[in-house]
Structures are given as structure tokens and as C-alpha cells.
From TrEMBL:
Location of the protein in the cell: Cell membrane
Species lineage: Bacteria, Pseudomonadati, Pseudomonadota, Alphaproteobacteria, Sphingomonadales
Pfam families: Multi_Drug_Res (PF00893)
UniProt entry tagged with the keyword Transmembrane helix: yes
Keywords: Cell membrane, Membrane, Transmembrane, Transmembrane helix, Transport
InterPro entries xrefs: EmrE-like (IPR037185), Small_drug/metabolite_transptr (IPR000390), Small_multidrug_res (IPR045324)
Family statement drawn from the similarity comment of this UniProt entry: Belongs to the drug/metabolite transporter (DMT) superfamily. Small multidrug resistance (SMR) (TC 2.A.7.1) family. Gdx/SugE subfamily.
Name this polypeptide is given: Guanidinium exporter
Residue stretches spanning the membrane: 27-46, 58-78, 84-102
Superkingdom of origin: Bacteria
UniProt topology in membrane: Multi-pass membrane protein
Length: 105
């Protein structure tokens, strides 16, 4: 269950990062509220997951899901560049996440 909560927390990190972009510096109400709500739930689930998972593992997986997810959201929603270097960087992050999961107790 801690791993499921951690993955959901990571996905909510993507939600709040995307909503934050849409909030235009917290000048738009609904995206700002979505940002704050998703942040609170994401942090709460991360905190809950850390009761059973090592700090380094939990934090790395959470930020990794957020980083790769935000990269994919940027490409899909905002038309950001999908270059070889950016794809390689995302693959390296995913590789690190898999290795961290495999080496965790």
C-alpha cells in the first residue's frame, strides 16, 4: 500500500505542477485552488508512504514521477520540445527510479 500511495502522490505532483503553470502565477482562481489542493494531498500521501519506505527511496520516486510526468505534460499540453536530449534525460530518471525500487528493502 505505501507504494500505491507514493505513485498516486507522484501523479498528483504532476497535477499540481500543471495547474500551477495554468494559474499564471496564482492569478487565476481555479488553477490556483487545484494547485494547492493537489499539493496538500500529494504531500500527505508522500508523508504517509514515508512511514514504511526509506526517505531516499520515497522522495526520489515521488520527485521522479513528478519530473517525468511534468515533462510529458509539457510536451502534450504546451507543445514543449521533444528532443533527443530531453527524452534521454527522462529515460535516465526512469532508470534511476527502477534501480532505486529494485534496491529498496
Amino acid at each position: 500500500m505505501p507504494w500505491i500511495s507514493l505513485v498516486i502522490a507522484g501523479l498528483l505532483e504532476v497535477v499540481w505542477a500543471t495547474a500551477m503553470k495554468q494559474s499564471n502565477g496564482f492569478t487565476r482562481l481555479w488553477p490556483s485552488l487545484i494547485t494547492l489542493g493537489a499539493m496538500l494531498i500529494s504531500f500527505g500521501l508522500l508523508s504517509w508512504s514515508m512511514r514504511a519506505l526509506p526517505l531516499g527511496t520515497a522522495y526520489m520516486v515521488w520527485t521522479g514521477i513528478g519530473a517525468v510526468g511534468a515533462f510529458l505534460a509539457g510536451v502534450a499540453i504546451y507543445g514543449e520540445a521533444l528532443t533527443t536530449g530531453r527524452i534521454l534525460a527522462a529515460l535516465l530518471i526512469v532508470s534511476g527510479l527502477v534501480l532505486m525500487k529494485l534496491s529498496s528493502p
